[in-house]
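A.,

Following up on our hallway conversation. Structure tokens first:
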């Protein structure tokens, strides 16, 4: 059972990206005032477009974030039954890129599993303000190891499952992601698997987040990265229309 608050996910998104939402609110208020005050047709058209766009960004993206992170099965974890079906999970690695709010919950769920938490945050590469705010609000959990994405302090063939949950997209170019998958491949025991959970740059995420969907990577880009490291997709499914789960096995 998840211990998350009912609005935790949406509020976290708002806190991490608050300048964007403040700017959208300002546009909404200014365009609403202009719409009411002006009688010029072109001004009304421009104000109406600005009002609609800012309102959709404010209420649409936050509303969908609430559906994804607070109301869906994503953090209720029932989807894990499918993703881990038939897997041994005595030892597991949880990878994040500076923002970890769920590893302790997963560790509690799999009480007998030995966990290693790897933090790939690199302040020289991950320069977006949102991830820095997230890191300040959710410091690494005790026992977390700082690990370069391309050199994990983990022995070869020593783990059963590698988790990358809404984090590996912070590696912004394809060679970096390919190297991350190569490290996962090195660390996995024979028969082990990677559980990758990500938004994908697709029409559903464009409708939800507008230009923000460019922060995600296309499925084709992801596939090139894991295939370069010797993985194949054993299963793929969605948790909501906006989030995909990829279960990867060595080819």
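Then the amino acids I'd put at each of the 251 positions:
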């Amino acid at each position: 059972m998840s211990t998350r608050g009912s609005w935790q996910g949406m509020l976290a998104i708002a806190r991490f990206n608050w300048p964007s939402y403040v700017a959208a609110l300002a546009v909404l208020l200014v365009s609403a005032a202009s719409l009411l005050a002006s009688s010029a047709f072109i001004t009304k058209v421009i104000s109406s477009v600005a009002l609609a766009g800012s309102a959709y960004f404010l209420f649409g993206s936050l509303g969908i974030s609430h559906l994804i992170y607070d109301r869906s099965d994503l953090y209720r974890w029932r989807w894990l039954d499918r993703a881990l079906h038939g897997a041994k999970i005595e030892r597991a690695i949880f990878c994040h890129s500076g923002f970890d709010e769920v590893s302790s919950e997963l560790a509690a769920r799999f009480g007998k599993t030995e966990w290693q938490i790897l933090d790939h945050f690199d302040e020289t590469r991950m320069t977006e303000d949102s991830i820095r705010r997230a890191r300040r609000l959710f410091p690494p959990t005790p026992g977390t190891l700082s690990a370069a994405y391309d050199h994990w302090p983990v022995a070869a063939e020593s783990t059963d499952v590698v988790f990358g949950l809404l984090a590996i997209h912070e590696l912004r170019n394809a060679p970096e992601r390919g190297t991350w998958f190569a490290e996962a491949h090195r660390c996995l025991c024979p028969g082990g698997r990677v559980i990758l959970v990500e938004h994908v740059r697709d029409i559903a995420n464009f409708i939800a987040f507008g230009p923000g969907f460019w922060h995600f990577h296309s499925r084709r880009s992801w596939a090139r990265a894991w295939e370069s490291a010797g993985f194949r997709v054993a299963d793929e499914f969605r948790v909501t229309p906006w989030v995909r789960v990829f279960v990867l096995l060595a080819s």
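Residues 79 and 85 are 10 Å apart (CA to CA). Curious whether your intuition agrees with the design.

B.
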